[in-house]
Amino acid sequence: MDAWSEPLSRRRLLGAAAAAALGAGPLARAAAALPSALPHPARSGIDHVIVVMMENRSFDHLLGWLPGADAKQAGLTYTDAQGTPHRTFPLAPDFQGCTYADPDHSFDGARAEWDNGACDGWLRVNDLWSIGYYGRQDLPFFGKAAPAFTTCDRFFASFMGPTFPNRFYSLSAQTDRTSNLETRVDLPTIFDRLAAKRVPAAYYYGNFAFLLLYQRYQQISFPYSRFFAQCKTGKLPAFSYIDPNYTFADSGPASGNQGNDDHPHADIRAGEYFLSTIYNAVTHSPAWPRTLLVITFDEWGGFFDHVSPPAATADANPAYVQRGFRVPCLLISPFARRGHVAHGVYDHTSILKLVEWRWGLAPLSPRDAAAANLAGALDFSRRVLTAPRIAAPRLVVGASCPA
Q1: How many CB atoms lie within 10 A of CB 376?
Q2: pLDDT in tens, 73-119
């Protein structure tokens, strides 16, 4: 069954969405007023931006081992709801966590974890899994890619809450809800801005097309096979947004064997393999010399992180300025500094800001108008075409969790 005609269940929504055009005048002026040492966009050397959006892992949880980063793993202690202290601990060789509950990353649960900036409430709303971590040796993709390219250690989820709002920020620079409410979304997106300028763009999906939420992007939505074919020929669109295979169940057997998105209880080794296939397709493409690949996560998933997220300076809804916790973000490109950690404050709207800068697009909301441009983490003074070989063991999906 075609993804555009299948029935909607969890993350599958009914209804049709109408595009909401946002007046661009004040936002465009605010964006243009921000200082920049960037080259002229058309002469930047970047003609293709690819975004891969994984699910539900924090920076410390996955990358707390990274040299040069503000990162912590071993040696932290958190108290549970009964006041008992527990130390952070390595999770491998458990790569799924089937014996644990999916950590809380709801609007209210996040605030308990944040604890007004103390970032010490993990075990007051979660079990011990939330303070576990993976080391470099456990991650065949991130373990090689993060030290090789540019990693952002101040890249935050845009919203202190769950998947849907954060994914809306990555597409629309705003959200119309605080939960994973299964109704259509009527917000403009970066795809609308690109289409208005006749800039080619495409969305690629596996087992579900998240853009069904918007109900208007069927013509630019394609299965993964098309992306890999376009990489091979070098005929990529200017902007590509890639989603993994989703994990729809939060518990039970299916929570382990549905996705490669890193959402609990997906096997993170399947996510590592998936990312390695994207990486190898991009770095071996004829388009590689002119490409930026951004790999990140929608939100932290309830896993510990020691850095308190700062609030954004503006938002379409002032009640939503509080960012969520840090998530991994890798910049892979000939223009990405090698072995570098970028310390600038970014979130998902910083990716939108980069796309808007490159193709002369109006901002979607006050949030992306005021966001730091992720292009600022790149080095446009030199182009390094070499890329390390990264081969993760093949694992398409994990095992079923015990009933």
Answers
A1: 16
A2: 999 999 999 999 999 999 999 999 999 999 999 999 999 999 999 99
First to last CA, the chain: 28
Cβ-contact 265, 303 below 8 angstroms: no
- Is there a domain that residue 402 lies in? no
Cα 149 versus chain centre, distance: 17
Q: Name the residue with higher pLDDT: 403 or 123.
A: 123
Residue among 185, 263, 197 nearest 17 (CA):
185
**CATH number of residue 164's parent domain:** 3.40.720.10
Q: What is the pLDDT of residues 338-371, one digit of tens each?
A: 999 999 999 999 999 999 999 999 999 999 999 9
Q: C-alpha 250: how far from its chain's center?
A: 19
Task: Say if 4 falls within a structural domain.
Answer: no
Question: In this predicted structure, what is the pLDDT of residue 37?
Answer: 81
The total of other beta-carbon atoms located within 10 Å of residue 345's CB is 15
Q: What is the pLDDT of residues 36-86, one digit of tens each?
A: 489 999 999 999 999 999 999 999 999 999 999 999 999 999 999 999 999
Give how far Cα 118 sits from Cα of 98, 321, 392, Å.
29, 18, 36
155: which strand partners? 346
**Counted domains in the chain:** 1
Would you say 208 and 11 are in contact if contact means Cβ atoms under 8 Å apart?
yes
Note the pLDDT of residue 30: 41
- Is 180 a domain residue? yes
DSSP per-residue codes, 99-116? TSPPPP-SHHHHHHHHGG
Question: What distances in angstroms separate CA 44 from CA 241, 371, 380, one per listed residue?
Answer: 21, 20, 7
From the list 178, 298, 323, the residue with the least C-alpha distance to 241 is 298
Residues 6 or more apart whose Cβ sits within 8 Å of residue 211: 171, 203, 205, 217, 221
* Domain around 180: 35-75+136-377
| Cβ atoms within 10 Å of 385's Cβ, excluding its own | 8
Please, which pLDDT band fits residue 130 given cuts at 50, 70 and 90? very high
Closest CA relative to residue 88, chosen from 55, 119, 54, 110: 119
In a domain, 199, yes or no: yes
